[in-house]
Design brief:
Blueprint lengths: L12 E5 L4 H12 L3 E6 L2 H13 L3 E6 L5 H15 L4 E4 L14 H29 L2 E6 L12 H21 L4 E8 L5 H8 L8 H7 L9 H11 L11 E4 L29
Parallel strand pairs: 1-2, 1-4, 2-3, 4-5, 5-6, 6-7
Helix pairs in contact: 1-8, 3-4, 4-5
The structure holds (2E)-Hexenoyl-CoA (TC6) and NADPH dihydro-nicotinamide-adenine-dinucleotide phosphate.
The site of (2E)-Hexenoyl-CoA (TC6) has 20 residues, from helix 4, helix 5 and helix 6.
Length: 282
């Protein structure tokens, strides 16, 4: 489906972290198909090479750079290379993330730190490296990938919920701090999306309800799961001039799953804990 003007992103440089797979790849393909020069960065060279081949095969002007977003020095180097090569960074998409199911009472500090370092520190490092260039060039756009309403609580994902809530705080704060430089900062919250990583993160190791994506689908008013292209289309809008007066928002792309659950559904909702029997009440 081609919803936007052809050439919408001509001559724009778009950097996407974690752009070789899943939702990030769909965003790279989408921005590239509307004319952007796309730079995808992540840790695994072979994944990047495969993604670059696929994108170039589709006619997208794609480059790749190996980078672990947890490493501030690596991030700075990569951003310098992008600016040397393309003269500007018009859009930064902070999409790289880590996640796995882990009950809070047994989650190790290292597990917690691993996810927070990728999602929250990674977002900080990338934005921090790019923004001086955006200020010099008179503006730009940062899009952080969060999740659908991280404040509502995600049992089994305390690390990701904390990290993504933190990213929301960065989004609103940066929107205020950098708005007068012409820099817009928004975030986008995909609903459950059965990417390979999403499937693993949501289901591996969970003893309670194995096909959790099926449950998520039943809880979604629009009756299906999100696709990577759903999020990519919303990203195209938010980073375009059509959204030139939008900053500091988190746009949920979730088919309505984050809407409050009607009280009649509570009994059958496996994501809501059963009421406890009051102590000593026979
Ligand atoms: C709610 C928001 C919705 C978001 C959805 C998404 O993001 S979907 C997109 C999701 N996309 C992705 O996730 C893609 C990227 N994912 C990855 O790169 C890896 O899965 C990674 C997250 C572990 C990072 O690797 P790394 O090499 O940096 O880490 P490491 O191997 O050194 O381990 C560090 C600690 O974590 C522990 N631990 C690790 N795995 C598991 C597990 N399955 N189970 C339990 N624990 C696990 C491990 O035991 C260790 O703790 P310990 O034992 O020392 O106390
Ligand atoms: N799928 C879902 O259900 C949901 C996903 N999201 C969010 O959407 C985004 C994309 O998720 P999805 O496409 O499913 O998952 P993927 O795992 O496919 O995407 C994550 C990407 O991040 C990269 N990455 C991970 N760690 C690092 C790191 N330290 N430095 C650089 N890159 C890194 C990975 O590449 P590499 O291994 O090469 O480094 C990978 O390409 C994430 O922000 C996720 O939190 C939000 C809600 C739901």
């Amino acid at each position: 489906m081609r919803c936007f003007a052809e050439g919408l992103y001509n001559s724009r440089t778009v950097v996407i972290t974690g752009g070789a797979t899943g939702i990030g790849f769909a965003m790279a393909r989408a921005f590239g198909s509307y004319g952007a020069q796309v730079v995808i960065v992540s840790r695994k060279e072979e994944r990047l090479a495969a993604a670059e081949r696929r994108l170039r095969g589709l006619g997208v002007e794609a480059e790749t750079m190996v980078c672990d977003v947890r490493d501030e020095a690596q991030v700075k180097r990569v951003v310098e290379q992008v600016v040397d090569r393309f003269a500007a960074v018009d859009v930064l998409v902070n999409n790289a993330a880590a996640n796995f199911w882990s009950p809070a009472e047994s989650m190790s500090a290292r597990s917690f730190r691993t996810v927070v370092e990728v999602d929250l520190y990674g977002t900080f490092h990338c934005a921090r490296a790019v923004v001086p260039h955006m200020i010099d060039q008179g503006g730009g756009c940062i899009l952080n990938v969060t999740t659908t309403d991280p404040h509502r609580g995600f049992p089994g994902f305390a690390h990701a919920a904390a990290a993504k809530s933190g990213v929301l705080g960065l989004t609103t704060t940066w929107a205020r701090e950098w708005g007068h430089h012409g820099i817009r900062v928004n975030s986008i919250g995909p609903g459950p999306t059965p990417t390979e990583a999403g499937l693993n993160g949501m289901t591996v190791g969970r003893p309670d309800h194995p096909p959790s994506f099926e449950i998520q689908m039943r809880r979604t008013p629009l009756g299906r799961l999100a696709t990577p292209d759903d999020t990519a289309s919303a990203a195209l809008f938010l980073c375009s001039d059509a959204a030139s007066f939008i900053t500091g928002v988190n746009l949920s792309v979730d088919g309505g799953i984050s809407l409050p659950v009607p009280s009649g559904d509570l009994q059958s909702d496996p994501f809501i804990a059963s009421p406890r029997t009051p102590q000593g009440d026979d």
